Structures are given as C-alpha cells and as structure tokens.
Amino acid sequence: MEKRVMTDGKRRRGLAAVAALLGGVLTLGACGGGDDGDDAKNDGSGSQSQVDKAAAKDASDAHIKITPKTGKTGAGINSDTQVKVSGGKLTSVKMTAAATGSTVAGSISPDGTTWKPNGQLERSTQYKIAASAKDSKGRKATEHSSFTTISPTNSVIGNFTPEDGSTVGVGMPVSINFDKQVSNKKAVESHIKVTSSSGQQVVGHWFSPTRLDLRPKDYWKANSTVTMKMKLDGVEASPGVKGVQDKTVTFKVGRSQVSTVDAKTKMMKVVRDGKTLKTIKISAGSPENTTYNGQMVISEKFKETRMNGATVGFKGDDGKGEYDIKDVPHAMRLSTSGTFIHGNYWGAKSIFGNQNTSHGCVGLSDTKGAGDPNTDGAWFYNNTQIGDVVVVKNSADETVKPDNGLNGWNMDWNEWVAGSAVGA
Asked: In terms of Cα–Cα distance, which of 329, 321, 322 is closest to 346?
C-alpha cells in the first residue's frame, strides 16, 4: 500500500477547518446565540465585539440592586430586605414566599427608587424577589434574588411588658424575657433605650441571662409617657444567635396609686396622687403562712380565677391542694410565686380587720360570683390598674425578692445599677 505524505499546506488547511468547526460549536453554545443570531448580525460589516458594543449601548441605564443577595441565608426579618434602583425608576416589585407562593406586601417610595416590605418577615422562610425598572428612555431592566431568613435556632426574641399603647401604674417597669440566653449582654442592652417625657434616668438590670428589667430610680412620674426603642435586628446576643426585633413601644403612665397594707393592724390605705382615697379592712397571711413584705407591682388582673394550693406548694397528705377554689373573685397578682390581693367570699366577714387567715395572700371582703360592686374586693379591683403598687409592711415574713414578679423596687439603686451591662 502506498504511504501518502501530507504536505504542509494541506496540514494547515485541515487545522483551519477543525478550528472553524470548533469555533462554530462554541459560538452556538454561547449566551445570545441563536439560529439567526451571530451569522445574521455579523455578515462581514463588523466584528463580534462591535456587535456586543452596540447591544450594550442600547441597554437600560437603570441598575437594580436587591438585598439580600441571591443565596443569602440567615437574613434579618426587619430591615435587611430592600430593592434600590439607580438611573431609573422601579415599575414593579414582587416578593413571594417560595414554599406557599403568598405575596409579601411592600411599597415603592414616592420617587420610585426604593422598595421595602411593609412588615416583618417570617423566620426560616425562603423568599423570592423579582424587580423591574425603566430608565428615562423607557428601556427596561430586571433583577431577581432568592434568600432565606434567619431560623429560630439562630435568633432570639425578647417578650416584653407593658404592651404598646397601654396605660399603667407608676410602678410598672419595662420587663423583657428573652427566649434564649444572652451572653453578649452589653451589646443587647446598648440597643435597648427607654426614655420618659418626665426626663427620669432609666437603667437596666439583668436578673438572669434571659431577663432584663428597666426602670428609673423612683416610681414613674404620674401622667408621663414612656418610650422603648428595641433595635436588636442583627445584634449578636450569643455566638451564632442574633436578635431580629426592631420595635418602638410607647405606653402611658396614669395617675399615681400606692396602697399600703399593714399586716399588724390588718388595714390597707389606698393613696392616689398623694391623697387617701379609701381605707379598707384586710386579712393577710396567717402566722403559719405569712405574707411577703415589700413593694409589689400588680402584674395581672382576673375578675375570677381558680386558686389551687397544690400549684404553689400547699399540698395535703393526699397530695391534693390544701385548698382549691375555682372562682376566686377580683384577683390581682403581686408575685410570680403566687401572692395575690383578692376578694374572699368564703371567710366570715368578721375576720377582715381582725384576723390574718390566708396562705400568704391579702384578702378583701367580697361575694361569690364577683357581681356585687359594693364590696371592698370589687371596689379595689375596679379602682386599680396594672402597674399600681401594693406595699406590705409589719408582716413576720421576709421582703419579696426583686425578681419574684415585677418587684425590682425592693433593690437598692446602687445594686440595681451594678446589674446593668452598660452602667448608668
């Protein structure tokens, strides 16, 4: 068989053909290629780079930026999300929850350059955003993003009292209970500001890694307005755990009412705005179950409630509660551990003002069903609001612990300030 030798010229022509073939394959696989794309546009009158430049020259001047960027995880649920455009105006923004397709309401700014959600997002949720804009020549630009918000595992929530818009008594502190332990207390506390229209200085105190209370040195001034700004979104509360709240809460302080219970004389004096409003006969804790001394803030009110001794440690030999009263009238909580000031219909009327008989609560004469407005129990209930102060004195018991309820007023001011992570 004859061996044929390829000349240099033929070799060069063959390589050129292979290169052309490969070039065609690469061209077909490139962005913007099509059946009549490059060949139709580049017919010898200009190079491919010239065609690209012409297309770029005709592109919209509107440039859209979406935050968070696509693929972001652990995004905040308040202020992290927004759409911005330069060189044009937004024409539409659609944000949806990926799993359900539900639309997130949002608003485009009056000048058309920004968009933000109207409310707080959900945690552990993937969201998608599609945004469109036009420049001054009407040329359209689009942008997309998909991201996931922070999970409950990696975020912390502070549940607070009092509620926004409420009216409370002069003893009501701001109390925040976090759903996870806070190790970076200074970072968290420095992003919580409480101010009063009275100008009183407000300082926080950490009772535990999950509880922060804030109050002034003395009771709030009557008829003042208190504002709390909680700017915790993105603040690292503990390693790998961030805050997600961005809230402003405002509440009113009403008239000043402080009621003093004298366990020895078995009388209570109700003082409002410096004047004695009423003196009421009471029955405090028995010698075996004395009532706490100290300043206690009313934190809850119930027209009727059940009181079972077994829930607070008063169990009989059979393991059941020493008492179980299902309809205690006009009950107002003074401590977390179960101290109340409440109506009493089961005791003889003669005990009030004469004998201490309770398991530690302060009892007032009342009727079954809480329906008689003329009883002492009903009167006090109807003339009391959350945050009013009840002071107990001359009892044989100890002073209530400052963290047992909203009772931080029983702590010396210097000790209170020492419990702040940021100081006075």
From this structure: 329
Mean pLDDT of 157-181: 97
Query: Which residues touch 239 (CB under 8 Å, ≥6 apart)?
Result: 183
Candidate list 191, 205, 330, 342, residue with the active-site label: 342
Q: Which of 191, 330, 359, 361 is catalytic?
A: 361
Instruction: Give CA separation, 205 vs 110, 156, 216, 228, 259, in Å.
Output: 43, 19, 11, 15, 25
The answer to whether 78 and 233 have CB atoms below 8 angstroms apart is yes
Whether residue 9 is predicted with pLDDT greater than 70 in this model: the reply is no
Name the nearest CA neighbour of 233 among 118, 79, 125.
79
**H or E element at residue 380:** helix 376-382
CA angle 263, 266, 271 (to 5 degrees): 90
- Predicted confidence at residue 307, as pLDDT, reads 83
Contact between 384 and 364 (Cβ < 8 Å): no
Q: Which of 36-40, 44-48, 189-193, 396-400 has the lowest mean pLDDT?
A: 36-40
Q: Tell me if residue 342 is catalytic.
A: yes
pLDDT tens digit sequence for 346-371? 999 999 999 999 989 999 999 999 99
For residues 339 and 103, give the distance between their C-alpha atoms in angstroms, rounded to a whole number.
Answer: 48
**Residue 41: predicted pLDDT:** 45
For the chain, which domains are there?
A: 63-150 (2.60.40.3780), 154-254 (2.60.40.3710), 257-406 (2.40.440.10)
User: Region 143-150: what's the mean pLDDT?
Assistant: 96
Q: How far is Cα 140 from Cα 328, in angstroms, rounded to an integer? A: 69
Burial label for 227, CB within 10 Å (0-12, 13-18, 19+), is: middle
